[in-house]
């Protein structure tokens, strides 16, 4: 037995060494395969970019040729077939979650850039059914110019958004896009700025008019100016005369199923986001608003009764420094304001007229130092004998530095049911829920 033990021990050590070498070889092989896929993906995007550039030189009549199959999707299919459950085990869903249901749906995936369209399944609130360009091809914006609003060049953002087919629009690189005229979008479009730094600034901005199913994600939108009295194309087959626009960051007009998520908005000529003229089924989430007067208008006018159908969810946003009023200012419809962080206002945070139903749940309201501006709410140009019947309630809100919310109405269950779109979390969690508000610094190969 004494002579067998050293041989057995030696054999065990040799077996362990062989197993370790095998594991390292597999890991090295997987690492090299991943690098190879990324190189292939980059090369395919480069070829696609060259193809798009040559298209601009060939023909402006071939309006849809720029919508090409996405090379990232092909790489993703290879990736998933090879990695199988290993990839799923490495997503770390339970270790990086914040409790924000939108972010926890996709941000834990280190290879999010191969599965961009999964974002369309992560919506919440009244706009949760907005699928954007999920069912279409990818379109890579390679050119930040906007020289011709009637005949936009292939490869530009304007050329992408006017197409008649669903498109998931991404950007080849960082860019600042200064629009000469309103960017008039067509239905079933996603603008996805993840992974690059895209600014729409110093000119006209985005118009969503009489369309449906739009997702706008990951853009810096600021310093928008009035433009107009010009011809602007809205589809491959139509262009028309546009009068002077107000200079909103995002203007939603007679549209539905709209989701605006993880954008940073500031300093526009009129509103940062306005939704009017019968628009509904809208979610405004995870945005960072700063340095602006009239932040958000929801409802066209007191006399425009079609806005009684409006339903808007405002969730997980950060209303930050330099804001004065309208966060939002509501008319007629049903508004769910849930788990937002209000750290600055000068006049008021939430206002309204024409009997809107406002359901404020789980928000954090930090009042300014001004002793005359502690009230969160404002009924605009309406006497208390009228507004006392409006259904405005505060439920589970955290009111700080003397902030107070003036509730009203009988609290009819049916009314608040129409102004409820998701379950509110505790206001004590608002800091965590809104910690990623605004444009995210996403990098390929890392959780976003």
What does this structure look like?
By secondary structure, this protein is of the alpha/beta class. Helices cover 22% and strands 27% of the residues. It has 8 helices and 31 strands. Strands 1-2-5-8-13-16-20-24-27-30 form a 10-stranded parallel β-sheet. A 9-stranded parallel β-sheet has the order 3-6-9-14-17-21-25-28-31, with no helix packed on it. Helix 1 runs antiparallel to helix 2. It is globular, with a radius of gyration of 25 Å. The termini are far apart.
Quaternary structure state of the chains depicted? single chain
The first-to-last residue Cα distance is 59 Å
Q: Report the mean per-residue pLDDT as an integer.
A: 86
Instruction: Give the spatial strand order of the biggest sheet.
Output: 1-2-5-8-13-16-20-24-27-30
Overall 3D shape:
globular
Structural class call reads alpha/beta
Features:
448 residues; alpha/beta; 8 helices; 31 strands; globular; disordered N terminus
Describe this structure in a few short sentences.
The chain has helices spanning 4-58, 71-83, 85-89, 101-106, 157-161, 384-387, 413-418, 430-433, and strands at 137-141, 167-171, 175-177, 183-184, 189-192, 198-201, 206-209, 212-217, 220-222, 230-235, 238-242, 250-253, 256-261, 264-266, 273-276, 280-285, 288-290, 292-294, 296-298, 311-315, 318-319, 323-325, 329-331, 334-338, 341-342, 350-353, 357-361, 364-366, 377-379, 392-395, 398-400. It is α/β, with parallel strands linked by helices and 448 residues long. The strands form five sheets. Strands 1-2-5-8-13-16-20-24-27-30 form a ten-stranded parallel β-sheet.
């Amino acid at each position: 037995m004494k002579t067998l033990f050293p041989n057995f021990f030696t054999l065990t050590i040799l077996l362990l060494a062989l197993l370790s070498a095998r594991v390292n070889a597999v890991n090295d092989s997987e690492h090299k395969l991943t690098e190879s896929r990324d190189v292939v993906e980059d090369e395919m995007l480069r070829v696609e970019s060259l193809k798009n550039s040559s298209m601009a030189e060939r023909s402006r009549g071939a309006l849809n040729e720029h919508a090409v199959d996405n090379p990232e999707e092909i790489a993703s299919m290879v990736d998933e077939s090879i990695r199988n459950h290993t990839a799923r085990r490495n997503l770390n869903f339970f270790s990086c979650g914040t409790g924000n249901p939108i972010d926890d749906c996709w941000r834990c995936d280190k290879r999010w850039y191969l599965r961009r369209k999964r974002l369309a399944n992560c919506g919440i609130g009244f706009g949760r059914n907005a699928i954007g360009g999920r069912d279409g091809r990818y379109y890579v914006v390679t050119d930040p110019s906007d020289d011709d609003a009637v005949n936009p060049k292939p490869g530009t953002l304007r050329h992408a958004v006017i197409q008649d087919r669903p498109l998931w629009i991404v950007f080849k690189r960082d860019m600042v896009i200064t629009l000469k005229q309103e960017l008039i979008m067509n239905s079933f479009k996603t603008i996805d700025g993840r992974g690059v730094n895209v600014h729409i600034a110093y000119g006209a901005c985005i118009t969503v008019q009489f369309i449906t199913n739009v997702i706008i994600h990951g853009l810096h939108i600021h310093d928008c100016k009035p433009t107009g009295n010009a011809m602007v194309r809205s589809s491959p087959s139509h262009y028309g005369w546009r009068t002077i626009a107000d200079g909103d960051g995002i203007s939603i007009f007679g549209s539905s199923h709209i989701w605006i998520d993880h954008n940073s908005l500031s300093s526009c000529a009129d509103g940062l986001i306005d939704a009017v003229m019968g628009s509904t089924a809208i979610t405004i989430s995870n945005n960072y608003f700063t340095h602006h007067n009239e932040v958000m208008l929801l409802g066209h006018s007191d006399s425009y009764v079609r806005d009684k159908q409006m339903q808007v969810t405002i969730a997980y946003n950060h209303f930050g420094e330099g804001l004065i009023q309208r966060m939002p200012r509501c008319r007629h419809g049903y508004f769910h304001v849930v788990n937002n962080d209000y750290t600055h206002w000068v006049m008021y945070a939430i206002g309204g007229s024409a009997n809107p139903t406002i359901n404020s749940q789980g928000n954090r309201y930090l009042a300014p130092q001004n002793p005359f501006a502690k009230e969160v709410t404002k009924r605009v140009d309406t006497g208390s004998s009228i507004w006392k019947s409006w259904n405005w309630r505060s439920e589970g809100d955290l009111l700080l530095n003397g902030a107070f919310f003036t509730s009203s109405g009988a609290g009819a269950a049916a009314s608040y049911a129409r102004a409820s779109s998701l379950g509110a979390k505790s206001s004590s969690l608002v800091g965590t829920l809104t910690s990623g508000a605004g444009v995210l610094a996403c990098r390929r190969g890392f959780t976003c």
